[in-house]
C-alpha cells in the first residue's frame, strides 16, 4: 500500500514538474514586431525552383489609348495582424505612346522593415518597368516587397485610367 502511495505521489510531482515546462506565448526579437502573435501568411507564394519561370502579375485591362505626359499617384497600404500601419508610396510615371519612359517611386515607411523592402523595390523598379506598356507594367514581389509591389500595381492602374481619360 505504501508503495502505491509513493508511486502516486511521484506521478503527481512529475506531472506538476512537466507542467511548468509549458510556457506562454513566444515573441520575436526586439524589433517593431516584438510581442505580436505569429499568424500564418495566407498570401505566401512557393519559392521558385531553379529553372522555373517566376510568375508575373497580369495587368488589369484599363483600355487605351493613353495621353502622353507625367502622372503621379499616391498609394497607402500595410495592415498587419489587425494593426493599422500606413506605409505609402508616391509613384510618378512618364508615358509616351502608352509606354513608360520614366518612373520614380518615393517610399514613406512606418517601420524599419518596411523601409528596407521599399529601398530594394526603388532600386529595381526602373529596370522592371521602363520600356514596357502601361498595361504590362505590373510587378510581383519585386525585391521581395510584395505589399509595395501590390501598391505600385494599384498606382499603375490609376495612372493608366488617368492617361486614358486625358486622351
UniProtKB/TrEMBL annotation:
Keyword Nucleus on entry: no
Entry's Gene Ontology molecular function annotations: FMN binding
UniProt GO cellular component terms: membrane
Keywords from the UniProt entry: Lipoprotein, Signal
Signal peptide positions on this chain: 1-19
UniProt xrefs under Pfam families: FMN_bind (PF04205)
Region described as Disordered: 34-68
FMN-binding domain span: 88-158
InterPro entries reported for this sequence: FMN-bd
Protein name: Prokaryotic membrane lipoprotein lipid attachment site profile
Amino acid at each position: 500500500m505504501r508503495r502505491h502511495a509513493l508511486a502516486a505521489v511521484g506521478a503527481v510531482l512529475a506531472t506538476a514538474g512537466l507542467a511548468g515546462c509549458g510556457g506562454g506565448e513566444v515573441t520575436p526579437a526586439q524589433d517593431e514586431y516584438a510581442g505580436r502573435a505569429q499568424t500564418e501568411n495566407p498570401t505566401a507564394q512557393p519559392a521558385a525552383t531553379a529553372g522555373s519561370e517566376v510568375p508575373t502579375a497580369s495587368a488589369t485591362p484599363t483600355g487605351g489609348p493613353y495621353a502622353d505626359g507625367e502622372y503621379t499617384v499616391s498609394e497607402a497600404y500595410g495592415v498587419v495582424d489587425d494593426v493599422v500601419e500606413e506605409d505609402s508610396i508616391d509613384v510618378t510615371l512618364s508615358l509616351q505612346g502608352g509606354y513608360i519612359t520614366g518612373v520614380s517611386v518615393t517610399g514613406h515607411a512606418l517601420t524599419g522593415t518596411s523601409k528596407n523592402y521599399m529601398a530594394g523595390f526603388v532600386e529595381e523598379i526602373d529596370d522592371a518597368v521602363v520600356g514596357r506598356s502601361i498595361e504590362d507594367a505590373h510587378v510581383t514581389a519585386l525585391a521581395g516587397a510584395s505589399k509595395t509591389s501590390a501598391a505600385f500595381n494599384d498606382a499603375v492602374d490609376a495612372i493608366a485610367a488617368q492617361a486614358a481619360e486625358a486622351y
